[in-house]
Design a protein that fits this description.
The chain is of the alpha+beta class. Strands 1-7-6-5-4-3-2 form a seven-stranded antiparallel β-sheet, with helices on one face. Strand 4 and strand 5 form a beta hairpin. The longest helix has 18 residues.
Amino acid sequence: MKHYESTALIEASPATIWGILVDTAHYQDWDSGVVRVEGEARLGSKITVVSSANPNRAFPVTVAELEPERRMVWQGGMPLGLFKGVRTYTLTPEGNATRFRMREEYSGPMLPLIWRSMPDLAPSFEQFARGLKAKAEATR
């Protein structure tokens, strides 16, 4: 299994951050690492993400879990579990702030081949966390 992860301590409530996270249509307004997101963050819904890390490819995912103001999970991949990506967003209150964590785990028999062709997503994960922090702290 391979993964990417980013965290940020955000001086805002989980409710404020959650409102920004589920407003997928506006990700590109505050995260320049996202070109566009199509679809709504609702349990079971399909979302298509286009990132600046690979702008010629759209990544379809399904909202697999949704716990308002706490946790959201997106998953996608190839049929038969040949390759699977699971992105988990978590919000944990810490005093007057909230710890944001985004982790994406990759698995499946095709992982070694696909991993070699994937761009390094660490910078875009960090950019997402910084953008979310800036937007939430400006919103509160």
